[in-house]
Amino acid sequence: MRETPTGTCARRIWYLYEWLTNRRLPLPDATKVKAIPILDADQQFALTAATISPRHRILDNLPGTLAFSPLVRRTANLVDFGEKHLDRAAQEFIGKIHPDVLKRAAAFLLLSDSKASFAIEKEAPPAQRAARWAQIIGEAGSRSLSVTELERLQRNAIGDARFVQLGLRTEGSFIGLHDPRSPEPLPDQTYALPEDLPNLVDGIAAYAD
Question: 29-43, 44-58, 152-166: lowest mean pLDDT where?
Fold first, then answer.
């Protein structure tokens, strides 16, 4: 920063470092240069209303919060889908269907989707549990997202929780296999550390609101 105090890349890195670490570097505030956005809106989906950081002369157009800020690359396919306004077309189509027919179709699709989800996990749950899961999925979006709400849904989905630890997990997790010659994991995908989960879920909830 001292070598290139007006550099666009340097100011972005400076801002992100202080924002992510909550540590203030021993640097003077940026001079009166043109404020630049963190995200290039031509490359990634960004907020249209950005907040300015006077210290860095940066326009923060990142979505979400420090705890959870999802980034999506702007591609031609995604832009084309957005311009089609498929949500409006779906609402117009659904509006022409009798509510009773729509309700029965939704219930059938939810139950079929629930059975498919269990099949992926190679589970064969009782019909009552599959129906309970479908009902929970059908309630999606009806309440504000929070850790408490997620735990409520978890209790309803599992039913008998005598042999299950409810709540946010307290151990590490991954998808993958184990080395047949040792107990070492061979992960295809790893998940957030358990100690990071409360802050992360709170960030997701704030983003959803």
Answer: 152-166
